[in-house]
Specification:
The chain has a six-stranded mixed sheet with strand order 10-11-9-12-8-13, sandwiched between helices. 36% of the residues lie in helices and 15% in strands. Among the domains are: 46 residues, no CATH class; 104 residues, Periplasmic binding protein-like II (D-Maltodextrin-Binding Protein, domain 2). The longest helix is centred in the C-terminal third of the chain and has 20 residues. α7 packs parallel to α8, α8 crosses α12 and α10 crosses α17. The N and C termini lie far apart (41 Å). It is built from 17 helices and 15 strands. By secondary structure, it is an alpha/beta fold.
Length: 423
């Protein structure tokens, strides 16, 4: 736990005051104290030692912006981070003439966002809805420059839960309010006529209600095993982990609801996009090359990510192998996890192009999704404007030409697609 004093006056660098920090703390709903480090305000702190290769959410200095800055990756231990980590493991950043620091592992989305806002890290994978909140809710200048992956998440429940209707009266964990997981889950529940509520984890829940709570992904598997929750919806390999422990079953893959959706995207500070175009291009080049390699080398990706291989995550190799390679449509079809086998999707796939149609659809769905905190800014957003303002696809388009063009990832030459969302 970190004890610190927040400066009572507005931060000069971004205009946030103490009320903003309290809102941020409330929204993130994490076990640590939200800090003025978000924007480099004056502070006093005492920090306990951190485990090896685990980043503290507290910033000490805001680095000077330079054209030769190192790549500072922030990530959670999920498969969504694979392209960033594969690029580091295979020294693809160095091949582009960049220097890198050891990627920094965070336990929760709140921690990684705080570190990004404090500029402790400058290249992160983060939930796409979070980028909407950061840029428009908190008015922080940052840009999405690529997708990390497609699909790669699922709704995992207690073994006795057989249908979405059975979720009535139960508590389900989401990794963050602003997440694809929360968006997809609420659409599923609405289809079943279930009412979403947001109460303490041990609160009484009616038979026609589903209580949603936020848990960091690493805490979800044990919470389900102890039956403290009825299920969770999250990225891999936490779904595969519950399967391996036989403490949960996959009720539905999110990619079987929203075909080839993004979950995590590559997010950088806007200064890097506008002032360090060459640096940003080289970062994207490395990530796109990592994605192209990962598509054809999934067992190797599992090895790189595993605790016994590249040691980027604490997950055992068999769990990662299942998450990256096992998608038996017959097996999962029988238990209802796959309703659209004709979509011919992968459990998780890798492609970098950030489709504008996806961003537009996401903004529309967010307006219809319950989240914590102030949501007035969502109502003012115009989907088409967000798709062009939040996302810069120019770097990906250049990088794709270096690996053989859009067709390498099965994309159309004009980068068009129609969003398919079927509950």
């Amino acid at each position: 736990m970190t004890n610190l004093r927040i400066h009572p006056y507005n931060c000069l660098c971004c205009g946030m005051n103490r009320r903003d920090f309290l809102k941020l703390s409330s929204l993130f709903a994490t076990s640590f104290t939200a800090t003025a480090a978000i924007c480099g305000c004056q502070q006093q702190q005492t920090t306990a030692p951190n485990p090896a290769n685990t980043a503290s959410p507290v910033a000490t200095n805001q680095p000077t912006l330079t054209n030769d800055q190192p790549v500072k990756i922030g990530y959670l231990p999920i498969t969504d981070a694979a392209p960033l980590l594969v690029a580091h493991s295979r020294k693809l950043y160095e091949a582009e003439g960049l220097t890198t620091e050891q990627p920094r592992l965070f336990r929760s989305w709140a921690q990684i966002v705080e570190a990004f806002l404090a500029r402790q890290v400058n290249v992160i994978h983060v939930l796409m809805p979070v980028t909407v909140w950061i840029r428009y809710g908190r008015k922080f200048p940052a840009k999405v420059i690529a997708w990390n992956h497609t699909n790669g998440s699922a709704l995992t429940v207690l073994p006795e839960v057989e249908t979405p209707k059975d979720l009535g009266g139960k508590t389900i964990a989401v990794p963050f309010w602003y997440s694809i997981h929360n968006v997809v889950l609420q659409q599923l529940l609405k289809q079943e006529g279930l009412k979403v509520v947001r109460r303490p984890k041990d609160a009484v829940v009616a038979a026609n209600e589903v209580n949603l709570v936020v848990l960091p992904p690493p805490d979800m598997v044990s919470a389900l095993a102890n039956k403290n929750i009825g299920g969770y919806i999250v990225a891999e390999p936490f779904n595969a982990a519950a399967e391996a422990k036989k403490t949960g079953r996959i009720l539905r893959f999110t990619g079987d609801v929203w075909k080839d959706h993004a979950c995590c995207v590559v997010f950088v500070h806007e200064e890097d996009v506008t002032q360090r175009k060459e640096w940003t291009q080289r970062v994207v080049n490395a990530i796109v090359k990592a994605q192209a390699w990962s598509r054809d080398n999934r067992p190797d990706v599992a090895q790189i990510l595993s605790k016994d291989g590249g040691k980027y995550t604490p997950h055992p190799l068999p769990v990662l192998q299942r998450a990256l390679t096992y998608y038996d449509t017959e097996f999962y079809g029988k238990q209802g996890a796959i309703a659209h086998p004709d979509w011919n999707i992968n459990r998780i796939d890798f492609q970098p192009y950030p489709f504008p149609s996806y961003t537009e659809q996401l903004v529309r769905l967010l307006k219809d999704t319950q989240v914590e905190g102030e949501t007035g800014f969502l109502n003012a957003l115009k989907p088409e404007e967000v798709a062009t303002d939040l996302v810069d696809d120019s770097f990906v388009k250049v990088a794709l030409q270096q690996v053989g063009g859009p067709q390498v990832f099965g994309l159309k030459p004009d980068f068009s697609r129609q969003e398919t969302f079927v509950v």
